[in-house]
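seq:
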Amino acid sequence: MHYWALTMLVFAAVFQTACVRYPEKAQQPPLPPEDVLQLWQGFIDQDLYDSARVYSAGDALEFVNFLNSITDYSDPDRVMSITLLRDLACQVQGDSAVCAYVTKDEIGQDVPDTVILRLLDHRWKVWRVYGAGEAPPDTIPSGDVLFPGDSVDEEYQ
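struct:
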């Protein structure tokens, strides 16, 4: 009988604890776009595509999947690069960020690049990557309006 009472007491304590409603965790502020872009690029440089996918959406997610498909993990002579994003600056408005920076190409020349990030579910994600000095197009497809009233031409002239 003594064990029965002890068992019931433990069961009641566990049940009561399980039924207590804990306050929701406070929403952490998202990492700034600059930090997300640096993390994302670091994962790409190290061929850590699963980690890069966490910070990817839209066209950038397709880009990460493409890189993963062409990476030869069995090559013992595979060289990892480190991409330095110099002069990184992001302009944020609403749920969009346009980040501009400078990298070096294979022969050491400066190449300006641009990446667009979107705020999705309270987290910045790399949305579109423009590589090798490619500038964003004159028109942005519907749904990707970054700054209402502004054209892409005005932002990058």
